[in-house]
Amino acid sequence: MKACPNKERNLSYCNCSYPGCPRKGICCECMHYHRQHGELPACYFPNDAEKTWDRSIEHFKRVV
Ligand code: SF4
């Protein structure tokens, strides 16, 4: 697979605190992964809410 040319730039504004995720900085894969699970990516959440790692839409509606 070709490396994402935007990865370094994406990482500069990624707020995800989940360690070791292979999708970090590859926003299209991140979005696809969470969408498949009925969730939203970390960047939809304020930093304190993101740190719970609860990516559910219910959590998003509670905090945003
Ligand atoms: S939001 Fe999810 S898929 Fe995206 S980098 Fe964080 S843990 Fe990985």
TrEMBL record:
Record's protein name: Cytosolic protein
Organism: Thermotoga petrophila
